[in-house]
Design goal:
Layout (H helix, E strand, L loop, with lengths): L2 E2 L8 H13 L12 E6 L5 H12 L3 E6 H4 L3 E2 L12 E2 H11 L2 E5 L7 H5 L2 H10 L3 E3 L7 H14 L4 H5 L5 E6 L9 H15 L4 E5 L15 E3 L2 H4 L5 E5 L21 H4 L6 E3 L12 H4 L6 H6 L1 H13 L3
Parallel strand pairs: 1-7, 2-3, 2-6, 4-5, 6-7, 8-9, 8-11, 9-10, 11-12
Helix pairs in contact: 1-7, 1-14, 2-14, 4-6, 7-9, 7-14
Bound molecules: phosphoric acid mono(formamide)ester (CP).
């Protein structure tokens, strides 16, 4: 694998999940695979889980790791071509990415959207320029429109906690997974829900699960991320009989970058949980308690959020292993 930026970069998602679960069972089996290889992690934005899990994954594979907090410690980057750099930017991405490629065998990049210009964000201009100019394999640590390491960890989590009895699986019974929009006080990117939807739609197409998205009107995701998903504007109806509810806020794609008014009743709590099939509740974290998701769920037996965050390690390790095997 030379690039991990979306589910489309993965030939076989079941094999990648199996690889991650095998690494979870035996983390150090490939401890020499990354010997004398260097991973560079470049952050344009903050991170807890992605930073630590990807570092740990690389160390488990015997790699050296360098972390660059570009937003705080790097030169101000210019990304546009053809400009005279007589303003605040100091270094062009052409040189910066190419230099990092000289020092690293694999690079990871986190680059959030600005949520100002939808075309610029959805064309992944920053991420794609970085990939083009660095000249080495790149793993997305969350880009403007996707967070594939998170989504892979989510699929790993669903696979290993699948409540459907083995005998019923042989008859085609699969767990029901619902992506449920949640309230927030800020306009957040669509990267996590886009990516989760894309991975779940692929998993649904491969007979692994049944996928529904619930959001208020006006919060529909860009439709190329949701092929085959059932779409609902009614949370209570959507979560009926759900085995998993994946809670996440996102801002409107249509009214890009704006904080829209939203209706009451979209926060998951124990009352809503009664409508489900005793669903497990997931969230990528960080989460705002009692705004996005109730404390009673986060602190209760149905929460998978810590388990899910733990699986970020195996998601990253499986992807780095696949990349190292092709270096
Ligand atoms: N879920 C996730 O990517 O967390 P961080 O932003 O802390 O890395």
């Amino acid at each position: 694998m030379k690039l991990f930026s979306s589910v489309h970069d993965v030939t076989d998602i079941k094999q990648l999940v199996s690889s991650a679960l095998a690494l979870k069972a035996s983390p150090y089996v490939y401890g020499d695979l990354g010997k004398n290889k260097t991973l560079g992690l470049v952050f344009m934005n903050p991170s807890l889980r992605t930073r630590l899990s990807t570092q740990k994954a690389a160390l488990n594979l015997g790699m050296n790791v360098m972390v660059m907090n570009m937003d705080k410690e790097g030169w101000a980057l210019e990304t546009q071509d053809g400009v005279i750099m007589n303003g605040t930017t100091v270094e062009h991405i052409r040189e910066a990415a190419a230099v990092m490629g000289e020092y690293c065998d694999i690079l990871g990049l986190r680059s959030f959207p600005k949520l100002q210009d939808r075309d610029e964000d959805y064309n992944e201009e920053f991420f794609n320029k970085f990939v083009k100019f660095c000249g080495v394999p790149v793993v997305s640590l969350e880009s403007a429109t996707r967070h594939p390491l998170q989504s892979l960890a989510d699929l790993i989590t669903i696979t290993e906690t699948n409540p459907v009895p083995i005998a019923d699986r042989a008859n085609g019974k699969v767990p029901k997974v619902v992506l449920a929009w949640a309230p927030h006080i800020k306009p957040l990117p669509q990267a996590v829900p886009n990516s989760f939807a894309e991975w779940m739609c692929r998993a649904q197409a491969e007979g692994m699960l049944d996928f529904t998205i619930a959001q208020p009107e006006g919060f529909e995701l860009e439709e190329s991320f949701t092929p085959g998903a059932k779409i609902s504007h009614n949370l209570d109806e959507a979560i009926a009989d759900a085995d998993y509810v994946y809670v996440k806020n996102w801002s409107s794609y249509k009214e890009y970058g704006k904080l829209l008014d939203f209706p009451e009743g979209w926060m998951m709590n124990n009352e809503k949980l009664k409508l489900t099939k005793n669903a497990k509740v997931m969230h990528c974290l960080p989460v705002r308690r009692d705004l996005e998701l109730s404390s009673e769920i986060l602190d209760g037996p149905n929460s998978l959020v810590i388990h899910e965050a733990g699986n970020r390690l195996w998601s990253a390790q499986a992807v780095l292993k696949a990349m190292l095997e092709e270096l």
